[in-house]
Amino acid sequence: MKIARIDLIEIQMPLVHFFETSFGRTYDRRIILARVEDQDGNEGWGECTCGENPTYSEEWTDSCWATLEQILAPMVIGKEVASAAAVWSLMEKVKGNRMSKATLETAIWDLEAKKEGVSLWKHLGGTRDEIVSGVSIGIQDSVGQLIQKIRTEVDAGYRRIKIKIAPHWDYDVVKRVREEFPDILLMGDANSAYTLDDIDLFKRMDEFDLMMFEQPLSHDDILDHAKLQKKINTPVCLDESVHSPDDARKAVELKACKIVNIKLGRVGGHSEARQIQKTCLQAGIPVWCGGMLEAGIGRAHNIAMSTLEGFTLPGDVSASKRYWHEDIIEPEVTVSENGTIRAPEAPGIGFEINRKRIDDLTVKSKTIDPA
User: Fold this and answer.
1) Residue 25 has what pLDDT?
2) What element of type H or E holds 358?
3) Residues 22-43 pLDDT 10s
4) Residue 348, in any domain of the structure
5) Dihedral of CA 249/254/257/263: which sign?
6) Is 164 annotated as catalytic?
7) pLDDT in tens, 300-352
């Protein structure tokens, strides 16, 4: 397989409702898409899941565009590769920049699955044709507003509720939520907002029977999370700390967590995600798919990954309409009244690309051809 053309497209999409974490509040998304084409005219699509600013990770929209255009795309264009799984090696000498790498890598997985006439989730080795869906709810203007949003999502059938927590929005908020919803699967995502000085707070929150605390401590830490996990009963889930299969191995050895969140962008694409999934599966650690406010292409790739063995907990893959007035794929992602999503049977990511919608949202584009 040889990649003969790469199109980079930046779109801007307004969110249906703002989304707030400990990093700040987001009202719309600047998203980079990659369309790859092989020598036979087959195409595949990937989506860069970085944020607009380097808050979740070091990568951000403008840095990813430059990295893709100037460094990574030239490494991939015109090269012969045996399979999509081999694409990572073409970019391996570039340190970090995993979200940028995943943009191209996932697009080529989509292309390869389409060439073979098989759905991406089957091509990856998925073991089930339906995934269980949860939702992530950001920090709200009031606890009452949060309760109302949770009720809406529970009534819609979602099987797990994730709420963001931060030093100004934690114990009392979780307490109120638990009083209103004593039986739901509930978790708290801290996005690295705490330190070991807050151990007593996390011990107190053990009383709420949460599924997990996601990334409570520093974004690049494993050791302190191991210390925290020893002191509390609630499982610690690592997110930002796990960038690679080696990070996952170290987290397992140090007993830094009992759960791992796998995000395609954060870890560099499907090949690396599958290795992390295997490491965790062998260790008996459940994994789930985290979300990064993806548009439809990124959401479709998340569905495919979530069908792999070991993804036993409800992920952040939810319906398109929760985030977008109109998505960039057809049909849009929908969730059943039982809180599940069917993995599509069509080749590749299984959804059609809404080119008109993408064109309407495009703010810039660039085509990279072989030199």
Assistant:
1) 80
2) helix 355-361
3) 677 888 999 999 999 999 999 9
4) no
5) negative
6) yes
7) 999 999 999 999 999 999 999 999 999 999 999 999 999 999 999 999 999 99
In a domain, 140, yes or no: yes
Residues 198-208 pLDDT 10s: 999 999 999 99
The residue annotated as part of the active site, out of 250, 255, 263, 278, is 263
End-to-end CA distance of the chain: 18
pLDDT value of residue 369: 85
Shared domain check, 263 and 282: yes
Query: CATH code at 305?
Result: 3.20.20.120
- Residue 121: its pLDDT value, please? 98
DSSP-derived secondary structure for 91-120: HTTS-S-HHHHHHHHHHHHHHHHHHHTSBH
Range of the domain at 104: 3-117+354-368
Are residue 204 and residue 262 in the same domain, yes or no?
yes
DSSP 133: B
Starting from the edge strand earliest in sequence, which strands make up the sheet with 3-21, in order?
43-47, 24-38, 3-21, 362-368
pLDDT at 22: 67
Catalytic residue among 79, 164, 227, 255, which? 164
CA quadruple 176, 180, 186, 192: dihedral, nearest 10: -20
Give 341's strand partners: 131
Both 334 and 363 in one domain: the answer is no
Q: What CATH code is carried by the domain that includes residue 60?
A: 3.30.390.10
User: Cβ neighbours of residue 148 under 8 Å, at least 6 residues apart?
Assistant: none
Average pLDDT value for the chain: 95
Average pLDDT of the residues in 275-281: 97
Domains of the chain: total: 2
**Contacts (Cβ under 8 Å, ≥6 apart) of 221:** 241
Number of helices (H), then strands (E), belonging to the chain: the values are 14, 15
For tokens 């191991």, what's the residue? Answer: 226
356 a catalytic residue: no
